[in-house]
Amino acid sequence: MAKNDYFVIAYRILIYLYACLKSDVTVDTEEISPAKLDIAPKYWLYVLEHLQVEGYIEGVYIGKLLGGMPSVKLENIAITPKGIEYLQSNSTMEKAKEFLKALKEIIPGL
Questions:
Q1: Residues 64, 49, 75, CA angle at the centre, nearest 5°?
Q2: φ and ψ at 90, to 5 degrees?
């Protein structure tokens, strides 16, 4: 897996949202921004859209601006119970978790 692999990005988003939920902390959307995740905005939009369509997150509103440019609004974004289950029981998510653990050992501060 690469650090910009879909499942790695999805894991990072879901684990952050779950941590916020458990700690009763307001989600800082900058923590899951394309810049913070080091991915292209279009890819970030793709990941968020699919996480929402699959029912793993809520609070993502995607529209189109004049000229067809996508518009994204994150309002009360949160992980859903289905997202928590996916995070904890999906084998690919477990691989993403292990990849990030290993990467963090190699690159501190990631």
A1: 75
A2: -85, 130
User: Are 96 and 10 in contact, with CB atoms under 8 Å apart?
Assistant: yes
Give how far Cα 17 sits from Cα of 13, 77, 84, Å. Answer: 6, 8, 9
Q: What pTM did the predictor assign?
A: 0.79
Can you give the pLDDT of all 110 residues of the chain as single tens digits? 677 889 889 989 999 999 999 999 999 999 999 999 999 999 999 999 999 999 999 999 988 766 666 778 889 999 999 999 988 887 676 776 776 676 565 455 55
Q: At what angle do helices 6-23 and 91-106 cross, to 10 degrees?
A: 90
Q: Exposed, middle or buried, 39 (CB in 10 Å: 0-12/13-18/19+)?
A: buried
